[in-house]
Amino acid sequence: MAARPSEFALIAKYFKPLARDPGALALGDDACLLENYAGSETVATTDALIAGVHFLADDPPHLIARKALRVNLSDLAAKGAAPAGYLLALSLPQDFETEWLEGFVRGLAEDQQRFGISLLGGDTTATPGPLTLAITALGRVPKGRMIKRAGAEPGDGVYVSGSIGDAAAGLAVLQGTLAAGPHAAYLSGRYRLPEPRLDLGTALHGTASAALDVSDGLLADLGHIAEVSRVRIVVEALRIPRSEALQAVWGSTPEAVLRAATAGDDYEIAFTAPSEEAALAAGRQGGVAVTRIGRVEAGQGVVLLDDSGREISVAKAGFSHF
Length: 322
Known about the structure:
Elements: H1 7-15, E1 40-50, H2 61-78, E2 82-93, H3 98-115, E3 119-127, E4 132-142, E5 157-161, H4 166-174, H5 184-192, H6 198-203, E6 210-213, H7 218-229, E7 232-236, H8 244-250, H9 254-261, E8 269-273, H10 276-286, E9 290-297, E10 301-305
Helix pairs in contact: 2-3, 4-5
């Protein structure tokens, strides 16, 4: 059996080719150097992903890499930031195969090209536990224009991009607990390869009063906006956008809608805005459907209403690690 490359040989072979930004210093230093741009601010976000928790351990390595990068870009999108680069901390199991790492690096390279970014630095270690990786994504936003979770006001509409619930159904397909027939590829793809809504995020400047990406569940994540904005968010269940594929496999019962509203891994943008016309126009500019799903009121928390205006009991609003 061939000897494993050292940490630094591994970095030089696999990751140095990804570090194309001059600020990465060819991964030969302890840190990267970021150029400042007049009139802009830097936005930073970090997400950690663990095999068996955020992705299936046997998922193709190029898709694991792309998902890890994209969930971070999704955070930038919700802040209205344009991506500038990223750092990667990768903890590899002792028995990793170089073929796996080659596939992982290929996935990063694919999405670096797509999103116009570069690896800036990071760390590579071995672990006795499952594969773990953390990406810190850096973005730029015009000064004073980052879209925060705080800012929703009574009278605002509540909106979400794309469709909700697909990723949860896709996970069930991959786990073998849901037979989705002709919809299997679409749904599993929504779980494995989310689409960061970067164009929508920048289009929401001056339109959205508050925003975040939907990672733990639509209702759970809207709860964060309600909490920090100190408002009540009312969601109308039948307005929640669900794809034809999802409705084909889960149906359209109230229980199915609730399931979608509390499922995670959608990585759509949920936001509030005072103008419905401007919100829908931002969706057109950003190239994704935007749906009004509710309203902001005085009060606190998030409530889900049925088609008769009655509150639907929600036992668990979304995913929680603890």
